[in-house]
Amino acid sequence: MFEVLSNEILAPNLHRMVVMAPRIASARKPGQFVIVRADRGEERIPLTIGDADQAAGTVSLFIQAIGASTQRIVSTPAGGHLRDVAGPLGMPTHIGQWGRVACLGGGVGTAVLYPLARALAEAGNRVTTIIGGRSDRYIILADELAAFSERLLVTTEDGSLGRQGFVTLELAKLIADPEHRPSAVFAIGPVPMMKAVAELTRPHGIETVVSLNPIMIDGTGMCGGCRVVIGGEAKFACVDGPEFDGHQVDFDSLKDRLTMYQGHEERARHAATDCRLKEVANG
Known about the structure:
Blueprint: E1 2-11, E2 14-20, H1 22-27, E3 33-37, E4 45-53, E5 58-64, H2 68-74, E6 81-82, E7 84-89, E8 100-106, H3 109-122, E9 126-133, H4 142-146, E10 151-156, E11 163-164, H5 167-176, E12 184-188, H6 191-201, E13 207-211, E14 227-230, E15 233-236, H7 237-240, E16 243-245, H8 251-258, H9 262-281
Parallel strand pairs: 8-9, 8-12, 9-10, 10-11, 12-13
Antiparallel strand pairs: 1-2, 1-6, 2-5, 3-4, 3-7, 4-5, 13-16, 14-15
Helix pairs in contact: 5-6
């Protein structure tokens, strides 16, 4: 059992949970993740390790509570326990020295981006961070990212904060500016966003790394559920990734896999809601 020390809401449906997990805290590296299970018999959910405190023995997890299982996880209060937190899993981010790098986060992808961007800055890279969301309510970790970024740029679809539009608008400006053009780009967010970033950097030959989030079950490559197509070859995001060369990713097949179980997820969500309503009605 893993104790939850804190559980805070960062944005609509997005929680940051600090969990006691000393072994994982001491071993994790940027880019790695854990698989969490709220209780016995429940779904296994992959979650990025957003931060770790080795001295305290804690890890910070960012959870977008959309489906029934993630809603169950975020319903665990401080002082409660999660059944399983397994990890660290996945290949760590390659932290090189590129000079100038751009780190792009869209929505909840900003939380996944945070440890990666910080590690790049600590390695001596000059980091420009671009984060975006539907509105100012969905912009997260801006202050934390600004603390180590040379520049922090914000975009919102409705223009309520920063520049109106998508993160690719600011990236295009960087690429067009010889003084600020990045040698490498890291993008984490919705599939259409990562695909757009890869297509924007491709003509310029800018190295582009994306973090993929296909369906995962065991986290060891045994089930094959997280299969993705990279450069025409099948890879497993849980053991070969989750980060890949964005110019080699087949984003269309990834999108298809992500929507494969939407019907099942919707039914599970309705069933969980009905169960909660019955519990309330029965006192």
